[in-house]
Amino acid sequence: MVIKIIGLIIGVLILFAGIYYLVKEKNDSESKKIYTIISIVGGLIAVVCVLLLILKF
Length: 57
Prior knowledge:
Blueprint: H1 2-24, H2 29-55
Helix pairs in contact: 1-2
């Protein structure tokens, strides 16, 4: 359970970091692609960890 909570925290931090830098580098198209992908990956990690916590796998 501790690993799932740590994964959730890491996923949320990656998501927010990706969004922060996406807004910061909004004029660079290549950076927008990279930070969008990073945000999606962080969001997926967070969602998977929440689902694992709820379903108690």
